[in-house]
Amino acid sequence: QVQLVESGGGLVQAGGSLRLSCAASGRIGYYAMGWFRQAPGKEREFVAYISWNGDITYYADSVKGRFTISRDNPKSTVYLQMNSLKLEDTAVYYCARQFRTGAVTTTSLYDYWGQGTQVTVSS
Asked: What confidence tens digit (pLDDT) does each residue in 35-69 have?
């Protein structure tokens, strides 16, 4: 089965940058991938999406212009470059593999999820 492992999270000051990685053991080369996040007491929310070949990307309005999703299929890795981080970006970040087309922000369209990596933004 496909296993996804996120890394790169940590503590960063507001305005700083962080680069998250999602390493996959298994095939992701033909699948779209997404990043989601969940803050304490809140629902898991969509962050970014990338098509299987990287031609299409989509971002939540809250991160548009600040975050960039990318992928390296030969390395079976998806990245999330986060710039100009804000306090409200604090959350556990998850990567996931999409297995069914539809609204890319819908969690039910993703079949494999990583365990998440904590991102904490301080003032």
From this structure: 999 999 999 999 999 999 999 999 999 999 999 99
- Chain-wide mean pLDDT for the chain? 95
What single DSSP character describes residue 3?
Answer: E
The CA distance from 31 to 50, in Å, is: 9
- Cα(117)–Cα(5) distance, rounded to whole angstroms? 9
Report the C-alpha gap between 26 and 39 in whole angstroms.
28
**Residue 35 to residues 11, 123, Cα–Cα distance (Å):** 19, 24
**CA-CA distance, 10 to 58, in Å (whole number)?**
24
What is the distance between the alpha carbons of residues 111 and 119, in angstroms, rounded to a whole number? 23
Q: Is 55 left (phi over 0), alpha (psi -120 to 50) or beta?
A: alpha
> What would the two tokens of residue 46 be?
């969509």
